[in-house]
Amino acid sequence: MAFDGSDESLARQAQDGNREAFLTLYNRYLTKVYNRVRSRIPEADVEDVVQEAFIAVLRSLHGYEQRSQFGTWLYIIVNRQIADFYRRRHRGGGRDTVLVPLEDAERVADSSLHDRNAIDEKVLVQRALMKIPEHYQEVIYMRFADKLTFMEIAQRRNQSLEAVKSLYRRAIQSIRDQIGG
Fold first, then answer.
1. Which burial class, exposed, middle or buried, applies to 78 when counting CB atoms under 10 A from its CB (0-12, 13-18, 19+)?
2. pLDDT tens digits, residue range 20-58?
3. What is the residue range of 139's domain?
4. Nearest to 175 by CA among 133, 139, 135, 128
5. Beta-carbon contacts of residue 179 (< 8 Å; ≥ 6 apart)
6. Taking CA atoms, which of 13, 61, 94, 132 is between 20 and 30 Å from 110?
7. Domain for residue 25, yes or no?
8. How far apart, in Å, are the Cα atoms of 58 and each of 19, 25, 34, 68?
């Protein structure tokens, strides 16, 4: 049974132990959180990080004081989980080695140039994104990962539409400066 109501109302109900209220919030945000994590984490680890993020939300729910919108609070936790992923990965020795069976080696080695270029471009953009200021990253993620309109971003950030568009333009320019074109 799905509950209607604002995120904040559902959060209050979930804090009082209402499991259905939490499940409604989970269902509202699952795709958005998945897209946010997918835009920042290697594909193989996305589901694990999303799961860890929602576990962290559930564990931290009692501390949500509603001084900000629920979505803003949730994304702070998601961003922390993403940062924790990279901290664990760095401590674990960095890149994982992928073993390919000998019979598949030629096929893997001959993967199309287009696929490799697309992957290279994605890595380049992700690296540039990690180097720009946090408020720039946030507006880019809200626009592309969360698929929000500029008006929705303005509402979430409590800013004017013009301010958000200006912030977005500066963020895009900052990425271009990082990439070099």
1. buried
2. 999 999 999 999 999 989 988 888 999 999 999 999 999
3. 113-181
4. 128
5. 124, 125, 128
6. 94
7. yes
8. 10, 11, 16, 17
